[in-house]
Amino acid sequence: MSKPIILRTDGELNMGGSLLSELDSFAEVVTAENDSVKTLIQSVKNADFIFTCYAPINSDVLNAGRKLRGIVKYGVGTDNIDLEAARALEIPVVHCPHYGTDTVAEHAFALMLSVARQTPKIDRHLHQKGWLWPDPNYSGVELAGKELGIIGYGRIGKTMARLAQGFSMTCPIYDPYVTRRSCDPGHIDFTSFSEVIRRSDFLSLHCVLTSETWGIIDSEQLRKMKPSAFLINVSRGSLIEEKALVEALANREIAGAGLDVFSSEPLGKDHPLLAFDNVVMSPHFAFYTHDAYVRLERSCLHALLALIKGEPLSTKYQARLVSMPDVSRQVKMEDLNGLRVEGDVNFTATRQAWQKEHISEVTQSLLDDDAKVFVQQSLSTPCLNALSACEGIYIQDTEGRRIMDFHGNNVHQVGYGNPRVLKAIQEQLRVLSFCPRRYTNQIAIDLAEKLSALAPGNLNKVLLTPSGTAAVGIAMKLARYVTGRHGTVSMWDSFHGASLDAISIGGESLFRDGLGPLMPGSHHVPWPRREEDAEHIKTLFDEHAIGAVIAEPLRCTTMERPEDGYWHRVRELCDTHGALLVFDEIPLALGRTGKMFCCEHSGVVPDALVIGKGLGGGVMPMAAVLIKGDLDRFPDRAIGHYTHEKSPVGAAAAMATLEVIEEDALLENSCRLGAIALSRITDLKSRCERIRDARGLGLTLAVELEPSAVDDAEQILYNCLKRGLSFKVSSGNVLTLTPPLVITEQELHLALDILEAEVLKQLS
Questions:
Q1: 407: which of 382, 577, 677, 728 fits an S-S bond (Cβ 3.0–4.6 Å)?
Q2: Which of these three, 619, 639, 663, is where a domain ends?
Q3: Residue range of the domain that includes 355
Q4: Residue 284 is a catalytic residue
Q5: CB distance 257 to 271 below 8 Å
């Protein structure tokens, strides 16, 4: 089957950069020779998709593209695309409206500060003539206490208002499509257009270019502005009548301007605006930072991949559909294929078909009751089935069916209902069931000592928590205390918990989208594979105040692991820049990969190690942070107080879990059976060309199908469930297998027999 063709315009912009290589397996990228309509009409004839920035995608171009299935705009504005024609032809158009919101607003403020304080003029004098003593010709204007008028209260306008609050500015605002809400800050004032013009000390434009807004700032409005006022524009040049602006500046009707956009670009060398010292300009660069560039690239690539795969466009990387009609919330709930990038979807037709065949009326009534009382959410409620028992590697549903659980939320290292864990919990309940804050207990101390003894390097100080998410939060707070910096680096598509701080560093759209601003300073890089990928992190260290790198040593969702050299390089970068390296091993530690801790495979010791899930023996919620002893230097700070911090029952469960792992040689079992399993899935790959990869480390295994096999992966899951095997599907096409470490070789082969048969049947 031939690859779909992507027509890439604006060749001089290098849109997509090196990241376009990620599309190689899915599509052929062809760059138009130039961006004339004539050339585009010829070039689009064989194209399935258009990837464009400024090129004119008019109705003639669209009608010539008989195979067109989608258009991705490299940026925010879609004024170069005939949306009505696209809608009529049912061609979806995707843009990326959020990638540069903060970036553009910051640039607008930079222009304001520069023109108000005459920074460029002073800088030129220093470079050309030397030192400058205070001179009235170079005096500046403060922003504090001034009025920042904002025309257009969308994403960037709102961000401008938020930034203005930090400068003690008030904000008269005009936007005919927005009304004040009770939650809006008190320093903003919705008023009329003419009143904003009249009051503003700084007038900043943040509206889209339409027939109504074209030339909205003309000679009449410029005359209404204060002579001391400054005009700022980072939106579209044609919002301002440039001839009128030149005249207003020449006649000193306004004090100056900060401009990033112009009615005609590029700006000619003889443009009259270049003659004014009180005009600070940039060449349409407001969006252009490394951070925004990466977000834009990822947004476009995600959109292209979604269109190629025929998936509904999710909000991952903040790509948005703009030319098709909006659908109701209910309709979106009926079609959640886009969520498959995060896991098994609980609303698909395949799910419903399986339930119709396998769920009795009694169980269905239980599921209905569950859905009534629990908040519904993706990947969870409504539930798949109801359970009545669990033991060893098995879960048992209310119909009495026993299912081998190769998912288990990674809590079942020592199996379900492990007798020694249950006994330890029962005995502890009879002695001490709870330990309030300010007190300690022997079993909690024993657990901390045991974890310190097992941990690599000098990770000899411990904090216990009731959840992995809380443990991640502790590590983040510790990094801030130790380094004095709040910036973090983590990976796109990673998961570190579902609280607001954890999702800020996490990279899964399912948990991030629609929540508004997350923690500032949370930087992300693509998931690494090679040692040289660490240079992405180096770039962030060079450009930002980074306090910590927080990462999974092995990507748990899809079981991908970078070269060992990568982590050694990251360790080196953290040491050089005085940042902490934090490994999140919540699902990976305690033998899952064949060693007690996953980081032992690379030989890199982090500054903080976060563990959880299986620590409570599959019974108690239990997690911990292990840190280097020399970082324990903040006795006057509250780093991690939790009600069940030193839970004696949780500690008893954890101690029993560790004893089972050691005394029953589960590390050795994980290595031995993991090698057997990897050999079998590798052999399966050799017999099925639609399997892209087979990989594993201990009993952490993955079978990656070809990217187009999303429906197949889901069907394989439910077919295996019919035969008594449960696992998780990640990224839509990766079958992930994480059995309990107590599994026997016979049980392992039985499970793999089921998997092998269903994969071959579905993919043949």
A1: 728
A2: 663
A3: 341-414+666-763
A4: yes
A5: no
